[in-house]
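Q: what sequence does this backbone want?
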């Protein structure tokens, strides 16, 4: 398994003394090449689960494993390195920089990691071609549609060859047609790049193509469905 959460519990401060239980004993696992959808009503804890899976938040208790590394055994610096090298994030909003071209956006993780972007241009172009943007490498965000910007976001998340791909409401800003295309794209890329993918969504149609669906309620896993 590339992503494992075992009996994870997470609380947040609420006032001076109290804490709110956001995640209550959640267990789930995602092997490479599989796409798992995480859904449930607002406030059920699904975004907190995604943050724990991405090592952005340390849970109060439980076991978290990412790409074979036991997260609770790592210090903050090692968690940051694991996150940078093994986790790709697809955000709800594309977070593209307005002055960079699509190619430069995809190369940004290389630059931030201290690498030489010039050595990775071919891979960045290949990724943009994989998401259907071979002819848009020199366009800036203002010249791209919402769906195209989200495709750049996905290509950028895959640039570092992560073992785990996490997506937070990747279709929320898209119409139904483009949302369906985006999920089809994710299904194909998860298989081709052999990543373990977990995505949060309120869009029930998006869950039809997931390998598994985890439904949460009040911080707990209420139902696990093997969709296909």
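A:
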């Amino acid at each position: 398994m590339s992503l494992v959460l075992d009996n994870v519990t997470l609380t947040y401060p609420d006032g001076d003394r109290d804490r709110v239980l956001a995640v209550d004993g959640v267990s789930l696992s995602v092997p490479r090449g599989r796409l798992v959808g995480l859904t449930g009503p607002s406030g059920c804890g699904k975004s907190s689960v995604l943050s724990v899976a991405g090592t952005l938040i340390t849970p109060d208790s439980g076991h978290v494993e990412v790409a074979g590394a036991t997260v609770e055994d790592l210090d903050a610096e090692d968690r940051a390195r694991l996150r940078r090298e093994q986790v790709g994030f697809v955000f709800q909003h594309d977070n593209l920089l307005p002055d960079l071209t699509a190619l430069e956006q995809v190369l940004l993780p290389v630059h931030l990691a201290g690498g030489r972007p010039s050595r990775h241009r071919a891979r960045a172009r290949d990724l943009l071609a994989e998401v259907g943007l071979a002819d848009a490498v020199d366009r800036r965000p203002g010249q791209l549609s919402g769906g195209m910007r989200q495709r750049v976001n996905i290509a950028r998340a895959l640039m570092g060859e992560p073992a785990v791909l996490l997506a937070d409401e990747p279709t929320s800003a898209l119409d139904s047609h483009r949302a369906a295309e985006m999920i089809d794209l994710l299904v194909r890329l998860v298989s081709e790049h052999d990543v373990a993918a977990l995505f949060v969504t309120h869009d029930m149609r998006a869950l039809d193509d997931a390998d598994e669906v985890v439904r949460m309620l009040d911080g707990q896993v209420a139902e696990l469905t093997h969709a296909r």
